[in-house]
Amino acid sequence: MLLALLLAALGRQIPAASAAEYCPDSQSQILTDRPDVTNSSFVVPTRSLQAENGINLTARGASRSIDGTNTRIRLGVAHCVELLVDLPDYFRPVHGRDPTGFSDVMPAVKVQLGPLPGDVVFSATAGLGFPTGASRISGPGYNPYIQFPWSREIGGGWGLSGMFTQVWFTGQKSNAISEVTFVVEREVGAHADLFVEYVGDYPNHGAPRLFINSGAEYRFTRTQQIDFHAGFGLTNRSPAYFFGLGYSVRFDSRF
Questions:
Q1: pTM for the structure as a whole
Q2: Number of neighbouring beta carbons within 10 Å of residue 133
Q3: What percent of the chain is predicted at pLDDT more than 70?
Q4: pLDDT at position 115, please?
Q5: Staple 149 to which of 10, 27, 163, 180, CB 3.0 to 4.6 Å?
Q6: How many CB atoms lie within 10 A of CB 186?
Q7: Distances (CA, A) of 132 to 68, 86, 224
Q8: Are 125 and 150 in contact (CB under 8 A)?
């Protein structure tokens, strides 16, 4: 019911968003939701299909695990509106006893709104995780979520961005988590960006998980990107360290 209300609220914003002139088109450079945790505040262009992929190595205590292909498919269905889906991600330990298996499939809708005062670009996302994966990885129930990414250019190639996420885990004792991120980004030439990111996960039961993420992305064509990221935890419940590589591609005029 909550997800239906969220989608209805987003739907009422679509006519206003569709009239906006600042949303990306097929001549725009690729903009991805990776490699940082903070998603892009921009949607993909109308009639464009974008695939974002990656593989990660994560260390928690004495355990080491890998996951991939960390794939998100994004489809621009209208001006300033996209549908997206996170495909099941496979987790496997390479040392220790971390769980093995797939995560859930998670479809969502994203609408780019604004711009807000101060030239802040803002978007809203509502999605739902279906219990298709291993329960030790994603939990036993349906997991609705909302996200609100934002960004602002501050001049000289510098930019700020962030995101608030709320996820509900049905059927679990710790049944909700709030996540806050903040990113400082710097353009390096016309095709590359560097970033440093703070991520804080705050469950409604238990201690927070805080970590620092950093990395870079390089667009070697207008529609293709490679990236990497690495970071470390700030609390005992956070990963000790992690590292990831990724590749993304956009196909324009798909329908």
A1: 0.90
A2: 20
A3: 91
A4: 75
A5: 163
A6: 14
A7: 16, 12, 30
A8: no
